[in-house]
Amino acid sequence: MKKAFVLIVLFILPIVAYLFFASGVNNFGKLPTLTENINDISTLDIDITLKDKITILGFLGNDIQTNKGNAFNLNQKIYKQFYEFRDFQFVMIVEEGSELQVEELKKELGALTDIQKWNFVYASSPLIKTYFKGLKTDLSLDDNLGTPYVFIIDKDLNLRGRKKDDDEGTKYGFNTISVAELNNKMEDDVKIILAEYRLALKKNNADRKK
Question: Residue 7 pLDDT more than 60?
Answer without folding.
Answer: no
